[in-house]
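Lecture notes, continued. The same structure-token format from the folding unit now serves as the input rather than the output. Read the line below as a description of shape only.
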């Protein structure tokens, strides 16, 4: 028989899963306890975050229709997150809650790590040698330690050496990012992965606007009487009819005034040429 606490833990996990329409698996690797506490506080009232053993999480998901697919993404240091928020809003919320963190050494650089040229807060001392030893060109200038030129100390994908990590922390450069990394989120029969959830909202809005503009242009071009373009089609038809009536000398209540105006201008021009005044 499994230990009683394991049975109770699995049941509590099931209750959490059953209580919310949206359930996800998040990676909590490398998150310090203090920042984990802060993230829980940030999510309080909007989402439930539960850390547990992977085997117990998988057991809790085993008999859930559709949600058992989440079990395939339970590995390493994992947690369950349950909420009423839709998956896209939840993903955006978790990404926004991520925090900068110092490197400890041994991590992979998530991007190019650049140390900018300029004055440092350090007073002249042995640290200038420490900077030089890790490849940061430093010197003493006007009573302060300055970095003589901007330098990339680690390229994206490279391993951050421990001595470099220590120096970056002293320079208050925090290249790492800690937070809850979404592995998968389930909602109403669909499993959403990070590559789907990480959409650019402005790009999507721009695409919708472009699509609407092209659809309206097509509707106008083929004279499709959609409610959005019907007033424009009627206005164009009116303009075309008026132009045709003027070209064919068709008299209507709208064209007669233009004909009279045209005749008056022609008479005025003729009178000017004959040096007489029209009556």
């Amino acid at each position: 028989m499994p230990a009683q606490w394991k049975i109770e833990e699995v049941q509590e996990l099931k209750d959490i899963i059953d209580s919310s329409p949206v359930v996800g698996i998040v990676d909590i690797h490398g998150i310090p306890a203090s920042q984990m506490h802060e993230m829980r506080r940030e999510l309080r009232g909007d989402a439930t975050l539960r850390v547990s053993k992977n085997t117990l999480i998988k057991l809790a998901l085993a008999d859930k229709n559709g949600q058992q697919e989440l079990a395939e993404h339970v590995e390493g240091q994992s947690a369950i997150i349950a909420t009423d928020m839709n998956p896209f809003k939840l993903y955006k919320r978790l990404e926004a809650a991520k925090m900068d963190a110092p490197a400890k050494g041994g991590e992979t650089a998530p991007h190019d790590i650049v140390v900018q040229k300029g004055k440092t807060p350090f007073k002249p001392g042995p640290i200038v040698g420490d900077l030089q030893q890790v490849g940061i060109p430093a010197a003493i200038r006007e009573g302060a330690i300055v970095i003589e030129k901007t330098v990339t100390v680690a390229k994206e994908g490279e391993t951050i050496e421990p001595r470099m990590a220590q120096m970056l922390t002293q320079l208050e450069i925090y290249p790492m990012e800690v937070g809850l990394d979404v592995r998968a989120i389930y909602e109403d029969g669909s499993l959403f992965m990070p590559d789907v959830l990480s959409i650019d909202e402005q790009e999507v809005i721009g695409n919708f606007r472009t699509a609407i503009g092209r659809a309206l242009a097509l509707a106008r071009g083929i004279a499709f009487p959609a409610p959005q373009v019907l007033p424009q089609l009627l206005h164009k038809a009116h303009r075309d009819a008026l132009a045709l009536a003027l070209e064919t000398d068709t008299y209507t209540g709208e064209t007669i005034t233009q004909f009279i105006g045209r005749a008056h201008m022609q008479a005025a021009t003729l009178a000017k040429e004959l040096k007489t005044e029209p009556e």
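Point for the exam: The first helix runs from residue 4 to 18.
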